[in-house]
Amino acid sequence: QQLEMFATQTVMASMGITTTLPGGAPVGTVVPGVDQQPPAGEQTPVAGGEQPAAGEGGEQPAAGQQTPVAGGEQPAATQPPAQAVEQQPAVPAPQVAVPTIPVPKEYTLHTGEHVYCIARRFDVNPSELLSINGLGNASVVFAGMALKIPQTNNTFPGQRALIKHPTNHTISSGETLYSIACQYGDVTPEAIAAVNSLTSPFKLQAGQQLYIP
Description:
The protein is an alpha+beta fold. Helix content is 20%, strand content 7%. The chain has a two-stranded antiparallel ribbon with strand order 1-2. A two-stranded antiparallel ribbon has the order 3-4.
């Protein structure tokens, strides 16, 4: 009878019906066609060996972590090649001696000249130049006006040169040899005329090139 009961329970179990064996031991429900999965968190054993421990073999570097280079050294950052500095062509100097003009006791102004231009050119103090001629900062001067030049050896305060030279100068409309000399500050009209083979009355044309010594 027990054998018959066991056979009946086995058939019922195969049909998915749970019953109880003698002695209270339950027969587990078996669903046909469904594979049994191991419980969550349980590792499925690998055939023929142990599971690798955490951190051993196959460990992946953390996000943002540098992968070490063989030998322990990090590769040096590659610097971009330095840009070559473009060299400006040198201004050819005419093979002419530049005349040295002594400081005169009196000077007659030409078109384009003014008091501070004369003070820079002859390296004299502009305040003394104005004072000795009875002029002020707002005084009007004109071409043909004669100026007395101080002889006190009080030099021009500050930088006399206004534009870097030697260089080439392209003449603009309305410029004169004297006004061009004033633009550079410490250059005399006589020096510009000498190196450019110019003679009085120094007729200039717009677009003409002059060498400024």
